Amino acid sequence: MILSVPLGGKLCVTQECFIKNKDNEARFMSHPNQAQQAAVDKINPVGEPIKEQAVDFFLYFPTEWDACVAASQLMNLHFSASVRSADSRNDQWLCQARKKLRPTAGRLRSLAIFLERLASGNNGIFDTWGLPDPE
């Protein structure tokens, strides 16, 4: 399922699909695609200079410890990160990371792959990215 929806002033994009890991367990993965390119085009209209701006990334974990370890790893890479109980996901912990960057489709694709690996290495999943509310 592909979603590209404004949420309370935020633009969020995700594609969720099932994959099987080495133990043949199904899990969600998110992959940037044409929907992300369309979202990037809304952020930075074609022909306009690409502006640096904050982008939020959402990772979910089964334990607070896993989320905190991921947050620490992200902070070492100059992301700001916070951890809290995920209201909409029972017994899950959200690590919300933010980084200021020029959001191109290629850059977001690379970050999605990196964040999927980081989350997976800490027993979690990378869900999506979005833009913070304008100030």
Automatic annotation (TrEMBL):
This protein's name: Regulator of ribonuclease activity B
InterPro entries assigned to the protein according to its UniProt record, in alphabetical order: RraB-like_sf, RraB_dom
Domain annotation Regulator of ribonuclease activity B: ranges: 48-130
The organism's taxonomic lineage, starting at the top: Bacteria, Pseudomonadati, Balneolota, Balneolia, Balneolales
